[in-house]
Amino acid sequence: MSKDTAIQVRWLGDVEEHDYPAAESYLHLLHTEDVAHAIVQRLRGASLKQFKAKDIFRASQLPLLAAGNSHVQKDSKKISDGVLLSPLLLLRDEAQGRVVIADGYHRLCAVYAVDEDALIHCKIV
């Protein structure tokens, strides 16, 4: 789809509560339990920011998941139905020069499919 379509991505005013434990679980694969917990606490206190979908992908160095991915399809349906999406949780990995998507990878892929220039609401530390 292009940005000329009538589909508009809508965002919640804050991150859904269940996204924080999901982010912590993922971050625990990359860091010790204490460090992962501290990162999530910082994310909880962070203010919302906006970045273009294409820029987050470039900074994360992750591939775009196919539109046929079941989780991307679920989030794409939410977008087309006008459901408000939860902002992404991002971590700057300065040592590696990239952004870690702690939570929201599938949402990002779904939004990108609608408009690569769409502003993604997120918290980043």
From TrEMBL:
The lineage of its organism: Bacteria, Pseudomonadati, Pseudomonadota, Betaproteobacteria, Burkholderiales. This is ParB/Sulfiredoxin domain-containing protein. It comes from the Bacteria.
